[in-house]
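Hello, quick one for you while I still have it in my head. No rush at all, and the record is pasted right below.
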Amino acid sequence: MNRDQIEGGIRNIRGRGRSALGAVTGRARPQVEGAYEQVAGVAQSTYGRIHAQAEGLHRDGRHFADEAVSRGRSLRDEATDRSRHYRSEARRQGRALIARAEDNRGTTLALVAAAAFGLGWLVSRGR
């Protein structure tokens, strides 16, 4: 409960008392003033309740946004870690392939020549 809800409730009760006193004494002015206080108290209390609900929605929205930002950062960090892992793994395997090709120069030369011959043969057949 916030201040407006409490003050509105008190104002409503005070207005009821004033209206009842006016009804008992038979005077119209206190009854009207009491009815006005009642309506004003209900309006103030309703405003306080709506204000509290709006604050709650604002707080929930901020929490939701903070959670979304946190999850986004977590996903970004995970993607960055994975990309670093894949890049280092590709470099490692590339270096291993180069080392193997250098160790077997004759075989590598024969494979490159065969691939070039096959590619040339495929290109020449298309003409």
About this structure: The mean pLDDT is 94. The first helix runs from residue 3 to 25. The chain is about 95% helix and 0% strand. The helical segments are 3-25, 28-103, 105-125.
